């Protein structure tokens, strides 16, 4: 592509970039809430899952800021999502049971998107190194990748690797360092326009926004793709 240097390596976000986390969460919420939320209509289920997955009150951001534990942010999201549909709040023993069931069920639904394996096969064949940088802790994301059949990722940087989260430049730069590539020749691909594409670019990498639903603003001036297959347009010598 024009104005893009020769790419030496590729870094990926994980959740909703490589692994279809939103679908996994939705299926898990259905199973875990099968009894207490059995009265929900199809439309209610859609809204319930949307509230949980999209986290409009920013509980996950508070986890990243060190204000909440991972379990606490999850329960806050569940309480907010359930508030419109059940009278009794998710507290105490009920919350502990819900969280235990959620933790046991979620990994059963981890799957990569259909465009992931073909791209990784192409990168492997061309000997283009790749890795992942995630806004979650290393071991949790390592287990997620492995459960999704993505054990081939040798480079994985989590928020505990360097003690910061995206959009701090250090976490992207650590990914490039572990990959062994110069930042300005390293592609960073993720589904979040701000913390993936724009912040990776600000850190000196080449940020690419994966806009799977083509739902973003038309005036976005950065690099945007709608499928991971489109990553190859940045690698003209790779087929």
What's the SSE blueprint?
Elements: E1 9-12, H1 21-32, H2 42-54, H3 59-64, H4 70-83, H5 92-105, H6 116-125, E2 130-133, H7 138-147, E3 155-157, H8 159-162, H9 169-179, E4 186-190, H10 193-202, E5 206-210, E6 223-225
Parallel strand pairs: 1-2, 1-4, 2-3, 4-5, 5-6
Helix pairs in contact: 1-2, 1-5, 2-4
Give a verbal description of the structure.
There is one protein chain. The protein is α/β, with parallel strands linked by helices. It folds into 2 domains: 9-20 and 111-234, HAD superfamily/HAD-like (Rossmann fold); 21-109, DNA polymerase, domain 1. It has 10 helices and 6 strands. A 6-stranded parallel sheet has the order 3-2-1-4-5-6, sandwiched between helices. Helix 10 (193-202) links the parallel strand 4 and strand 5. The longest helix is centred in the N-terminal third of the chain and has 14 residues, at 70-83.
